[in-house]
Structures are given as structure tokens and as C-alpha cells.
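Anyone else keep sequences and C-alpha cells together like this?

Example one:
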Amino acid sequence: MICLVGLLCCASACSMENEEMARATSPDHKATAVLVREFGGGAAGSSNYYLYFASTEGKEELKRPNLTASECDSISIGWASDLVLQLHYSRCVIRQFENYWTSAYALRHIGAPSVEVVLVRDGDNNLAH
């Protein structure tokens, strides 16, 4: 019984929470990018970051992230144009990344082009090429 109580306490103390860090709608108002931070995990603590997209024309939910990362510093998003989203960061461990997103709704109804995701590491000016 004591072991079970200990496991339940750890499970509740180690639970993860989500925080929406940024939401940006494309200049043409056809797509929305959402940056989410998942944090928690008790004493060990951790933070994971996810970049999601949703069409503003359909009822799509934020399902599958285009980016999964951890250990990020100074992470932000911003649209460079209608079809290019930039994700800025100074340090990040990129665990999964897809550089294009296309709305399933838009494909079915209007054949919309893809949004390109560009990773921009801030402070790279001093790196040797």
C-alpha cells in the first residue's frame, strides 16, 4: 500500500504542463503557428518545445508538431512572408523537424501551397563557415 501511494504521489508531482508561448497568424491570415512549451517532471524538471500549425480557414486542431526540441534558449517565431515562418533561437536541441507544412483543409478545398519553416540560429555571425 505504501508503495502504491508513493507511485501516485510521484505521478502527480511529475506531471507535465503546457504553456502557449507564442501564436502568430500569417500575413495573409491563412495559417497560424503556435509555439508550445511543455514543462514539469518533478525535481529533475524538463522543458520540451513544440511548433504546431493550424489553418485559419478550417477547424483543424493542433495535432502533429513540425518541430520538437528541448534545452532551448531565446526561442521565438515570426512570419517573414505569407508562406515563410522563421523560428529564431540561440540554443536548442532539435529532436524532430519538418521544414514544410500544408493545411489538409486547404489542400482539399483550394489546393494551397505549403508553408516553409526556416530555423534561424541567432548569434551565428561569429561562426566559421
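And example two:
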Amino acid sequence: MRRRSTRAALTGAFLVLAAIAVAWAEGLHSSASEKIARAAQEVTYVNLEKARDLFAEVRSATKPGQPEWEQAIFGEATCIWHLLPIERSNAEQAAKLFAQLIEQAPQSRFTPRAMLNLGRILELPEDRDDPIDLPGARAWYQKVLDGWPNDPIAGEAMLRIAGTYIQTYDDAQLRKGVALLRNWVEEHPRDPLASIMWQYLAETYFFPLNDYQRSLEAYEKVDELGWADQGLQGKFYWRIAQMSERFLKNRDAAIKFYNKIIDETPNSGKLYEAQLALKRLGAPVHQPAMLQRLPDGNDPTPPAGTDAR
């Protein structure tokens, strides 16, 4: 929750920005709206420098209170923040623009996202000497939660708030973050980020809390809702199966998730080991559907060895 891997926020933030900008341009024909549409197109090409310049031109030519100004300043700030290579000066410049948007257009549809971004800037170091300000980040997330409690962005704000506690690895703060997030997701089971929330809880229960039963229960919630990285959950199925077998002595759960590796993620690299584990547990062993019939017409046989790893 602490670091953004290769700027993980890039795709989501810019797709939203592009969709809004293009939709706006379809209804207007002014020079400003045309430039916003062009900037959004440059974003889809990840040409952030060009997009930044176009957004800046619109910001300079419009005034606070105009929708084009709100779009432009948010777009400019977002582009600057995500420029590569990562530099602290870019984050600082973006933060000033986000703060200006919040101050001069507090009711803008971009304001809650600008607040979240200010929190992320405080939470995520741009370089090894950039100080992390978790209380400051938490304060911005809380403003979003308080100001837009019924908006989908409130769930993301709670996820971020919980993360500022959990990542400290201080036992009291960690448990506070877990409690906040669990209460939220149980009260908002249809939150768009519910699966991600349950997965964060499952991983935190697994380590550092070592609460394997709750970890299993949370992972089962994720599996029920659907994985954020659907198709790539094999490594988690392996963890769940191993945890169930070795720590919880829960044979049924172990068999369930070993079978999921075979049936749902046979390319995970754990297919053969899952089959050996099933054999070790005395459960039926089978091949994934894609291997049930080989090109020569022969049926493959499951592993016969007993040296399960």
C-alpha cells in the first residue's frame, strides 16, 4: 500500500481524465475544450510532456469557476506528477496545483481526487531522502471521507487511511488500521474496492499478524468477489492451500485451493506441486482441462511420485 509500482496510479487516473475530457469536448467547440481533448489524446499515448503543456495553455486562458479551468489544472497537475524520471520537484509542483484547485474550486468534481493525490504525495517518497508524512496523508484522506461519504471515492479514502496505520508495523496502529478497514468493508459489501480491501486484510492477517484463520476467511471473500488480477491469483491459491494444510490443518480448504490451482490457474507454475499435494492428502488427482486430451489422442496421467515437495 505504500509504494506505487511504476506509477500504478497512472492508468486509472488518466483513463478517467481522458474519458471526462473527451466527453466534455463532444459537447463544446471552444478552443479550450478542443485543447483538452487533444491533451487527453496525448495522455493515451503516454506523451505526458505534450499533454501537460496543452493543459497548461488551457489553464492560463481560462479562469477559476470555469469547467475547462478545473479540468485543465487537474490534468496539468496529474501529468507533472507522473513524469519520468521521478523527481521530487515534480511532486511539489503538482501538489501546488492540486492545492490551488481545492482552494479555488472546492465543489469541483475533481476536488476529492485532488485531495487524495495530495495525500499520496505525502505518503509516497519520490526519492530516498524524501520524508514520509503518514499523519499528513491521513488528514487529506479523512477530508475526502468526511466530505464525500456517499461517493465511491470514500471507499478508496478508507483504504488509504487504513494503509497509513498498517504500514507502520506498530502493533497498535496496525490493528487499528485492520479494524477500520474491516468495519468499512463489512458495512459496505458492495464497495467497488471490496475485493482489494479483503485481499489487503488477508495479506495483513497472514503477515505480520500471523492470524491464519482470519487470513483464510478473508482470502475466501476475495475469491468469492473476484480477484483484482483475475487469472494471476495462482500464487495466492498456493499460499492459501499451504497455509490451510500446514498451519490450520484444514484438509478440506487445502484440497479446495490445490484444485483451484489445477482448474483455474494451471499456468501459475504450481500445477505439478498442487497435484503432488493432493496425492499426499489422499485426494483425487486430475489434469487441467487444457491437458485432458493431448494432440496424439492419449490421456496424460497425473504424477505418480510420492516425493511431494
